[in-house]
């Protein structure tokens, strides 16, 4: 009816989150937000080069430091993967590589990529930069400890890289470091290599505990006026939940690392049973290798969600901004993230179906594993429903998001195969598993990282990245990554085992030779294509189009700072006041297709709604 | 301490209040200093560390077919010709619980701005911690002299020593770190840093008696872990 | 961060409550010690140990660590994660029983 559309009244944006500041505030003023509970933060401003750029307490600088160091370790991991693929695809060219070297590359590649690259990048890199900004805080609550956390990570990386240079080289036990082999002769690096790995992990855990405390308390206790938990961007929810997981899962890794170190150094028998080494009975007795596996995977499974959840959160925001549409089902997306996080502590032994653990455990863990698939799948539906009938911009960021959805669905489905005990028995320790976890943990989160870089580079650097180079980067990476990992599923089906240096002329695997060559070639090309991004970044820093404020016309607070790039203290003299959620895109009746979080209801510019 | 007064916010009790607090803006834990919230989450993480240690101990002890040493004999003391089981441990428990009590009192007097009582009670706590660590060191040396090693011992299953030294070692380290901080905070209290609101070195925030409460939480946690170690390792 | 709340709360508890809790803890510790002195065995021993342990832990957390007076948000955030530990304990108990069984079955009885 025409009289429903009254031009003189301001319109209500569709979010239910626009009234007051929550809890107890009852007032007719629709722009009212509760006053600040705590007075403004005093920041420590560095004055020398060292205190401004090295031992800097600004979370944004720390975030960039984490990003750079994590990327450096990622490049090391990438080179290791090239060496592995060289051996697997073209062994005649890899004659310099012994089996010991190969296993060391496998181990270091895995540990670096999972822990030192992905976890550090998402939590330390994106977390540090975005959490204070998106919550409307000036910085983390404890900047000094935040600064120390980065330097702990730095030392941890140093110790890890040092293991390449010690006698015996780095450990070759697989990133899972299973005893008893990890500390016995016959496994490469069973001397100093494993010790340095364990020490490095312990340092990493201590550092990330310090950082994690900051991220959690900043989100819980340092949000700005009007910012309720349900008005936070999903990026923050993803990183926040991942940090909760980190705080609760890393202890198990720390404990297992300490116990294995003692087994090696002091000859304790926590994990070491009575055992023969090259015919000689060792002094150990009574220990239990499976205890290590339980401890490791009690950490290890939440760890993979620590990698995945920030990706889920970030991609939700990227899709929303670049399709000019609110995320579909925001509340359920939040509950899904929280639910996945909580459930992730109850599924760990699906990594242990063939370990010889108590046989009844398979029932329990297969059940919980299939349950955890439900909220995960729901998130995929919601991403697609967000895109549905959206005003989609097919720019580089959106391409990465679409690539994420495709690869994550692929990897997630193969996870259902592996989550069932009977199906896992023939597939375990084959290339099927490698294909699965690279899809869900390697490719999909990597797509999100790339999308996030293209999305937030304009904020961090004040310049846009080249779209043209970005699209080349995307297509090489997406098609190339699919070429690497899709065929690997078939290798797994025919039974090609993982962590094998070579196939030893086994007749049934001769069919895999051509496939391995293809995969290796693709791997070299994709790896090389990443340098397109590095070139893009370096060139755009100087010659990119100036971004100005809020080039993507987004709503969340990081785009509404006093300067671009944001200065120390983020928001200038006055902290922002939040009146709505960050997903007011294409609101019917609003003139602009976005309404920033700081816009009070009385200032929303409306327009005549056209009836279609 | 009753619910703090916050302008524009009405406190509700129980789960209703929890839902309102969680759904409100700015903070989830109303009236809780960020440092206190941070210490609590750190303690939650540390709880998981000690839980993993104790779970590993349970698994290790439960799965060995070899007889586990009898704790009341191994940790007994021979005093005045009488074999008293677990005497040293009982005294250590008493000392640590008392130090927890003095710490709680220190927090109370701190909030009442009674600088002298607060400072003396913190010192008493620190002394209690020192006594505990001293007794733990004595216990270690006694056992080592009797042949208990991380890799073997004359009393029973060879893993006993490994678990014992590792778990009590980690606990003792936590106590020692606490003692160091207690001495530092006792000094700061007597020097009036919390009355003058002197800015801290690490946080650059103005000094506040809440820091005593935060340290108190850590100290009570150390006592809490001892309750569990006492029950599972010495008594079980 | 100058984080003093806008209105400072200064209400503290009376000294009596601290002495009561300390006394209770002492009594519970004494009872725990008696479990060993009187050499109770089996289920009685273990259940008494656990009961006294949880009572002491509860008193320390509720009163010394102030959780009894804190708002529910804090209490629940701290206590619910212990369910993950509970699950871990339960499963590792099953695991150690299984490990012991396999050792006795294969090494002592001679296997099947």
Number of strands of chain C: 0
Number of helices of chain C: 4
What's the oligomerization state? Answer: heterotrimer
CATH class categorisation of chain A: Mainly Alpha
Which structural category do the helix and sheet elements of chain C fall into? mainly alpha
Element pattern of chain C in H and E = HHHH
Cα radius of gyration of chain A in angstroms: 25 Å
What is the percent of helical residues of chain C? over 70%
Which descriptors would you attach to this protein?
heterotrimer; B: 236 residues; mainly alpha; Four Helix Bundle (Hemerythrin (Met), subunit A); two-stranded antiparallel ribbon; 8 helices; 3% strand; globular; C: 112 residues; 2 domains; 4 helices; flat; disordered N terminus
Please give a structural write-up:
- The complex is a heterotrimer of chains A (612), B (236) and C (112).
- Chain A is mainly alpha-helical and 612 residues long.
- Chain A has a single domain, classed as Cytochrome C Oxidase, Chain A (Up-down Bundle).
- Chain A has helices at residues 49-54, 59-89, 99-135, 143-162, 192-221, 234-265, 289-322, 330-343, 361-387, 396-419, 421-427, 431-461, 467-493, 510-543, and strands at 276-277, 280-281.
- Chain A has a two-stranded antiparallel ribbon.
- In chain A, strand 1 (276-277) and strand 2 form a beta hairpin.
- In chain A, helix 9 runs antiparallel to helix 10.
- Chain A is globular.
- With 236 residues, chain B is an all-alpha fold.
- Chain B has one domain (35-235): Cytochrome c oxidase, subunit III, four-helix bundle (Four Helix Bundle (Hemerythrin (Met), subunit A), Up-down Bundle), CATH 1.20.120.
- Helices cover 69% and strands 3% of the residues of chain B.
- Chain B has helices at 14-23, 34-63, 71-74, 87-111, 115-145, 159-190, 193-196, 210-235, and strands spanning 77-79, 82-84.
- Chain B has a two-stranded antiparallel sheet with strand order 1-2.
- Chain C has 2 domains: 12-70; 81-112.
- Chain C has 4 helices and no strands.
- The longest helix of chain C is centred in the C-terminal third of the chain and has 27 residues, at 82-108.
- The radius of gyration of chain C is 22 Å and the shape is flat.
- The termini of chain C are far apart.
- Chains in contact: A-B, A-C, B-C.
- The interface between B and C is large, with 74 and 65 residues.
